[in-house]
Write a structure and sequence with these properties.
By secondary structure, the protein is mostly helical. The protein has 6 domains: 103 residues, no CATH class; 90 residues, no CATH class; 54 residues, no CATH class; 72 residues, no CATH class; 201 residues, no CATH class; 121 residues, no CATH class. The protein is 48% helix and 8% strand. It is built from 35 helices and 14 strands. Strands 1-2 form a two-stranded antiparallel ribbon. A two-stranded antiparallel ribbon has the order 3-5. Helix 13 runs antiparallel to helix 14. It is globular and about 115 Å long.
Length: 816
């Protein structure tokens, strides 16, 4: 359509006529010519405007009123009674200008959306309106503002860590050991629009002549798609790029003040004529040539995005986040400087709470108040970080307020949260009779999929589909193995055997560098043909090797007691039942490894001979051989490789909590905190809001026997299917632990897309019961119990025996 547009405009210009005259002449020559959508489609507004201007000027000659200056002034006073500035600016014009630019072709600016900009949590303004004192929060700063761009970059640097890919060890000080190193990196990033992992690693390793591919940052990183970019100083980079095209620009031209003035023009002026006019004024004021205006008048508009704080707050925080040549104590706000002096001297001040003194305990001089993380700078300046300035307490159901429409700028999220609030309100009124302070605690399960952006959810959906295909293929393999009779002790519907075969298949596929396309195709199918299965089984045979000995684990012996699933990080030390923490090894080796990490076991037992069943023996790898084996066979499974190379459990593993503070989660937790917050609580999230996720509820359902209850609930449906099909395809009664239970099942060909846990809505009620019964102790216990392992008395003292006794020991009420 753009080519058609250009051709139409060219034809009109070539005819040397206005649009109307061009159409008229064409119709005289071709009366049947279609005009709309054919002869003239889309053309620039200037063609219509030029024609109208000619018409108005001609009309003006025949109407004396249109030439009368007094009538023109009266019109301006009527139209722009309160807009004196605009009235003055067009006072010397005439009716043609008024009709053309202010009435017919006038485009009013879009309605301001300033009310939707988030409020700053730290800064407010006070003013008098109608004789009443008003206090309202300041609006957050534009993300493109030079001040925010610098703030964001310092914050990004403060959170940056460099990791060794192989071990995941933090090696930041290897590359950034001195203040000069950090300043050099800041200077380099401050000139760039954005940065990715590859560019950063290449820059950092260059002086050391190391391989950039051996390191990565701690930000979002995908080995197979290393394209995630983070913004640096986008505003400065774009301005400098265009200045580079201008002639005679002094090297020191772009000062902070100049940059901010230029940004203000580019950000706030939207009309292309007005922006050109403003740029000309800026150019004259700064002795710049005409090429400056030509280069900047088509500057792409900045995104209407905003930071988390106001410019006033950032001006107070930023001086504490800078370092080196960028740091100056004279930039500190007077009030901040006074607080710092009292922190250093220990002088009492009721506005400085004890927790702030505790967080700043290692800061001893004024010069130590540099390169501070944003959270610590917030405590120093404002005495708080994530805590609310004014906490809210809803004492009755009537106090619960719905979110204002558009307050979160996401209608789906608003709907979810408002429905949550209405459910809480209904429970309060129905079960609590609206009684004041009815709730003691509120338990929340965070939906894991809600935390992720669209692209991540798409990846998760693909992964779920892949997993489903794998599950069906593994069942088909087990059925084929059982029918062939070559493998021992095969039970196709055993979850344990399905899992061990999945691990076997994964280990083989990841451990071989080059795989034939036809085998690769079978490995992704849900239901391969019988001939494909036979071929695949032959290919899998003898290809899996034990990670601790290198000995081959034959497929036909896989389901015997000779081999077991082994947890790389023992469950007794840290609960991780994920696929990335499991391998297959000899049962005797698994027993000998006990509760050691994989790498720990190798380091303390290398070369050791282990006796297997049937008088066979295997030898434990040497350290070098183990490292080589792991790198060769697990390079495609980074998570598993890192765990196999771990010689201690990182502190982050032990201490991490499952509470999530992403956007929707944070809003829900904040709102629920308004209901159960205690009087002296300042934190945004109350200690009486208890959060868990799906992983925790799954474990508790299993441990509390609720999965068996669920099977009992759905048994009648499967019995009915057996009756309808006159078969036992959907399950049968069997004896389990001396008890008759109905073992549900679904025919293999019907299994794709089926999940018995979600065949009706009662599973939501079951989850709700588990969430209600889960306590903070349960969550802490499942995360931290026995995290420090066995051995010394000190370690044992640190274990949560109180929680274990409280949660895991059966106790009976012997009272009458």
């Amino acid at each position: 359509w753009t080519l058609v547009k250009k051709k139409t405009e060219f034809d009109i210009q070539k005819s040397d006529q206005t649009v109307g005259a061009y159409i008229y002449d064409t119709l005289l020559k071709k009366p049947d010519q279609k005009i709309k959508g054919k002869l003239v489609r889309v053309i620039e507004r200037k063609f219509y405007k030029a024609e109208l201007e000619q018409i108005l000027k001609t009309q003006q000659q025949f109407h004396p009123e249109l030439q009368d200056k007094n009538i023109y002034q009266l019109c301006l006073e009527e139209l722009y009674e309160n807009n004196e500035a605009h009235r003055s600016s067009i006072g010397t014009k005439d009716f043609v200008h008024l009709f053309l630019n202010d009435i017919i072709f006038f485009q009013r600016p879009l309605k301001s959306k300033k009310s939707l900009i988030s409020n700053c949590k730290f800064e407010r303004r006070t003013f008098i309106k109608d004789g009443i004192k008003q206090i309202e929060p300041l609006k957050c700063i534009a993300a493109s503002h030079p001040l925010y761009q610098e703030y964001r970059l310092w914050q990004w640097l403060q959170n940056l860590r460099i990791l060794e890919k192989e071990t995941d060890n933090i090696v930041t000080t290897k590359f950034l050991n001195t203040e000069a190193d950090w300043i050099g990196l800041f200077d380099w990033l401050n000139e760039r629009k954005e940065i990715d992992n590859k560019a950063l690693m290449s820059h950092l390793v260059k002086p050391f002549k190391l391989k950039a591919s051996d390191y990565r940052w701690n930000y979002v990183f995908d080995e197979n798609n290393d394209t995630k970019k983070y913004p640096c100083n986008e505003t400065k980079a774009q301005i400098k790029f265009r200045l580079g095209k201008c002639e005679n620009i002094a090297p020191d031209f772009l000062t902070k003040e100049t940059e901010e003035n230029l940004w203000h023009i580019l950000y706030s002026v939207e009309d292309k004529f007005d922006i050109e006019k403003a740029l000309k004024t800026f150019a004259v004021k700064n002795n710049l040539g005409s090429d400056f205006v030509d280069n900047f008048k088509k500057f792409p508009p900045f995104k209407k995005e905003y930071g988390a704080y106001s410019s006033k707050a950032i001006k107070k925080l930023l001086p504490l986040m800078r370092m080196g040549k960028y740091w100056n104590e004279h930039d500190f706000h007077p009030q901040t400087k006074e607080r710092i002096e009292k922190l250093l001297s220990g002088e009492y001040d009721e506005s400085i709470r004890n927790r702030v003194r505790e967080k700043a305990i290692n800061i001893n001089t004024i010069h130590d108040f540099s390169f501070l993380p944003q959270w610590l700078a917030s405590y120093i300046v404002y005495d708080r970080h994530s805590e609310d300035g004014e906490t809210v307490k809803w004492k009755t159901a009537a106090d619960i307020e719905k979110l204002e429409q558009h307050s979160l700028r996401n209608p789906i999220v608003e709907q979810v949260i408002n429905e949550t609030l209405q459910v809480v309100k209904a429970i309060w009124l129905q079960h609590g009779n609206g009684r004041e302070d009815y709730f003691d605690e509120i338990h929340i399960e965070l939906g894991r999929e809600m935390k992720n952006p669209a692209e991540k959810r798409k990846q998760m959906t693909n992964q779920i589909s892949e997993n489903e295909n794998t599950n069906l293929r593994v069942k088909a393999l087990l059925i084929e193995l059982m029918n062939e009779g070559n493998a021992e002790n095969v039970r196709p519907y055993s979850p344990m055997q399905q899992e061990i075969l999945k691990l076997y298949e994964e280990g083989v596929l990841n451990g071989i560098e080059s795989i034939d396309d036809d085998i690769l195709k079978i490995s992704k199918q849900a239901q391969p043909t019988s001939s494909d299965l036979k071929r695949y089984i032959l290919w899998l045979q003898q290809k899996y090797r034990s990670p601790y000995t290198g000995a081959v684990i034959p497929l036909n012996k896989l389901f015997t007691t000779d081999y077991q699933i082994e947890h790389i990080i023992p469950q007794s030390r840290y609960f991780d039942d994920s696929f990335s923490n499991k391998v297959i090894c000899e049962a005797a080796v698994n027993k000998d490894k006990d509760n050691l990490l994989g790498y720990e076991y190798i380091k303390s037992n290398y070369g050791k001979t282990i006796e297997l069943c049937g008088g066979k023996h295997v030898k434990i790898f040497t350290v070098d051989a183990y490292e080589k084996f792991v790198k060769e066979h697990y390079s495609k499974s980074r998570g598993k490789m890192k765990k196999l190379m771990m010689d201690e459990i990182p502190e982050a593993f032990v201490q991490r909590q499952l509470n999530d503070s992403r956007y929707i989660s944070k809003v829900v937790k904040n709102l629920m905190s308004n209901i159960v917050r205690e009087d002296d609580e300042q934190e945004a999230i109350s200690k009486n809001v208890i959060v868990c996720n799906g992983a925790i509820t799954s474990i508790l359902k299993q441990d509390w026997g609720l999965n068996d209850i669920w099977n009992e609930l759905i048994t009648p449906r499967f019995e009915r299917l057996n009756k309808l099909t006159n078969s036992s395809d959907f399950g049968e009664w069997t004896s389990k632990d001396g008890k008759q239970v109905f073992q549900t099942q679904v025919p293999f060909l019907l299994q794709k897309g089926f999940n018995k846990k979600r065949i009706d809505h009662r599973h939501h009620a079951l989850d709700a019961i588990v969430i209600a019964c889960a306590t903070r102790s349960h969550i802490n216990y499942l995360n931290n119990e026995s995290a420090l392992g066995k051995a010394t008395k000190t370690e044992k003292d640190k274990k949560r025996y109180d929680l274990k006794h409280k949660l895991c020991t059966k106790r009976f009420n012997t009272g009458s």
